[in-house]
GTPase Der
Amino acid sequence: NLPVVVIAGRPNVGKSTLFNRLIGRRQAIVSDMPGVTRDRKEGEALMRGRRVRVIDTAGLEEAAPDTLFGRMRSSSETAVEIADLVLFCVDARAGITPADAHFANWLRRQGRPVLLLANKAEGKAGTDAALEAFSLGLGTPLALSAEHGEGIGDLMGEIVDRL
Ligand code: GDP
Ligand code: MG
């Protein structure tokens, strides 16, 4: 059984972009219905020579605002339960939102190992903004840019060290 890494966080922080970055081109996003974005949710990644099962907690994007927390929770619950490591993503450019804080509190109570990621942290401004994520109480945020491919090697090393 491969170790399981789950990518979690509120919508739009870059979870699916990170997922695709970790999984690589071979298993890139496939759209199986016209007009409907169906992100692949699971894939296998090779990190420092180690095979890892990666799960993207997608599908939150359609949640109504008033049920966002509930939907985030139910969508992530099952995945987090089987996670050997949770990658909790925030958007360094947007800063920490109430949804991030709420989700972080819930995640802390799940008792799974968490690695805090400050995504969209390309460039110097991004790195500075990433420091705000310290306030979540989930340890030192790892700054990266899934879209620009910055910090991905370091992230993979950190993941493998924790598995
Ligand atoms: P998800 O809802 O958490 O799965 O987020 P997505 O992966 O769909 O990304 C949401 C938006 O953020 C998209 O427009 C991405 O192109 C953008 N995005 C993702 N990663 C980065 C990044 O590292 N930097 C910047 N500037 N934008 C990013
Ligand atoms: Mg997504």
